[in-house]
Request: fold
Amino acid sequence: MTLTNFELISVVGQGGFGKVYKARLIKTLNLVVALKIMSKVRVIKKKSVSSVMNELQILSTLRHEFIINIISAFQDRCSLYLAMDFLAGGDLRFHLCKFRKFSEAITKHIAICIIIGLDYIHSNGIIHRDIKPENLVFDSQGYLRITDFGIARIWKPQNSHETSGTPGYMAPEVMCRQNHGVAVDYFALGIIMHECILGKRPYNGKSRQEIRDQIIAKQAAITEVPQGWSTEAINFANALMSRKPQQRLGCNGPDEVKNHSWFKDIKWTDYEKKLIKSPFIPDEKLDNYLKSNQLESLEDQSILHSEQVQQQFLGYEHVHQFNGQPTYVSSIVSPRTPNLRVQLKKEQ
Reply:
């Protein structure tokens, strides 16, 4: 697998390591994917080799309708490539910026999608640890999926040293360097609920320390029931935001979350099969595509000449099997095959 197996269509995201492209696997299933192209130089400079390797290791063991699924992973001398499900609906942050707040029906739908995804992740012994609107992406039918497993970890009883995350969504026990479990992901869901209901997070600050001080100083809570909302919804959000993990809804597993009175009419099996129509359908043509459609400019890549540096990325390969066959069986480029033209075009 090489970059020549893909037709790059448009840029749909940008991160610290590079860009994410909407791309098409050519000469195979005509499959449209999200192709993350990461600069090895940037990964090394940000000391994130373990993060990108960890994401691949975890994603290669998971597959579910409510998370992002990996299709293939490969590398060359300069870059890492991760092909995943393409989701056309944009991330939750984009829509929160656009609408600021959501109705109770839409917020309940968002919460249900996250809960189903977390149930699967946690059942495989993994804590995501970075649940936030930027890492929740809608498909074209309005169902959310969980993405970005860079700092996800297989749960271990002694994990107080694992303090990565996004301030504002990090649970108090992570901020305070304590051992933690699945309840950290439910705390983040509570913060997202707060955002959907009131249009803002309960804890804000310019630094991690400022946010930590706020968490220690006060318990986040929605004190009044906004117009158009039920008491059960507010109770649910507040139960998730409990500072003490032992008292937090979800600390004993997904069943106590699903059995909350707010979900008394929900048929979870139908939701898992996506038989319930979403109350929120994203626009077919999102206007959040980035202007630049060009591949990343090359940095100083002299550090990549070292074989010792390249060894850090050893094993960054994966191919998903469809019906027992590799995704790209007919499109592997042999050493004698001339380079295929990688076509960049703007979406019509």
Observations:
- The domain at 3-87+288-331 is CATH 3.30.200.20 (Phosphorylase Kinase; domain 1).
- Residues 287-291, 324-348 have pLDDT under 50 and may be disordered.
- The chain has two domains: 3-87+288-331, 92-272.
